[in-house]
Design goal:
The chain is built from 5 helices and no strands. It is globular and about 35 Å long. It is an all-alpha fold.
């Protein structure tokens, strides 16, 4: 499964919204403290825990399989891709501090 396929699957779950990724990325590069960054992530955590109509096994699959694969692939690609040119870089920056 390609990196883009994994990102598409994560996007489809509705766990996070692009605006939250953007806010986190901007905060990260603005050197906001961990508590400020955590408050951005907490919105997605709340949504995942209480608002999405997913079975517990689906949630486990999303967290353990898709996200793990996505970030593993993204880190490997980070060795060869200039993230300034790709929206995937925002997801990587967001994942490295969560």
């Amino acid at each position: 499964m390609s990196l883009h396929d994994l990102k598409d699957q994560l996007d489809e779950t509705g766990v996070y919204e692009q605006a939250e990724v953007n806010d986190f990325t901007e905060g990260y590069f603005a050197n906001k403290d961990a508590q400020q960054l955590s408050s951005i992530i907490d919105v997605a955590v709340q949504r995942f825990d209480h608002e999405l109509a997913l079975e517990p096994t689906q949630k486990k699959s999303i967290l353990k399989s898709r996200q793990s694969s996505f970030f593993k692939n993204l880190r490997a690609n980070g060795l060869i891709i200039n993230f300034e040119k790709y929206c995937l870089g925002e997801a990587f920056i967001g994942s490295s501090n969560s």
